[in-house]
Please model this.
Amino acid sequence: MVTSKNVGLAVPDWPTTFGYNMFLFPISKWVGGILFEHTHRLLGSLVGFLTIILAVWLCWLGDDRRWLRNLGVIAVVGVILQGILGGLRVTMMKDQIGIFHACVAQAFLGLLVFIALATTKYWRSIADRPLDLQAFSRIKTLAITITVAIYVQLALGATMRHQHRDLSILDFPTANGAWIPDTSAVALAKINTWRDARALSDVTAFQIWLQMVHRALAFIIAIAIIAFSTRVWREMRDFAALKQLSLVWVFLVFGQITLGAWVIWSNKAADIATAHVALGAVMLSFGVSISAICCRIFGRVGALRRPDAAARRPYHNQQPA
Model:
């Protein structure tokens, strides 16, 4: 909401808030854009505090897996970096820092989703099932590729949002009345003359093609998710969690495309734009979960089928690693 409403600088100082200690800023002054920016800071602080608790819990109280404890520490480093980037965005007034701030946020979310998944009983209970490892390897690779593509898509969206300008293309599914926009000097001059008459910011060829790449990647991701879900339901019948997650992923991508179109039709209404970003984060979370489960299954099955596996006890009789 801070970016969608363009109120990132409603509070001009950091780490203080109008000279006050951030946590002592009077509630009576939480008005207008200040409400969104200041609340954003407080929630960021809460997330940081909870992340520290999580790391302490993993490292000293709750888990015997060293790699998971290390991820808890990395999460603390990540949330500190995120807070610093948010502050620098205010003090240095650099849009590029805002883009990096948004990308780190999505990576941090993905990390927390994975940590949460790895602490579940389901993660520990994944066992050997009849499985074509070669075919499943392709499914796993597809899941990881889609997840990376979603992250890139979110980064593209952040780049567009943090330009703090009007939409470069105002129609959908066409682009300036055509399927392939004309970005020649003459065409851009006509477009900007039309936009100037309506008090809209001028647009460049880069901005137009950035939005076109965002649209094209959305279409590719949608096709890939449908293909992934189809393969899972056809070839992974014994893995109910993957089937259910992949099906929800399909519904999410159609909802996300609808919201993306709605952002354009509503001329970037703040609530719609925010919902679009939020659903993108949910899609990334599903991608991280699905990819992690695929890697876990592949690793478990592959380990149990190595030549020395015959000397081991059946997996379901072993203590989880």
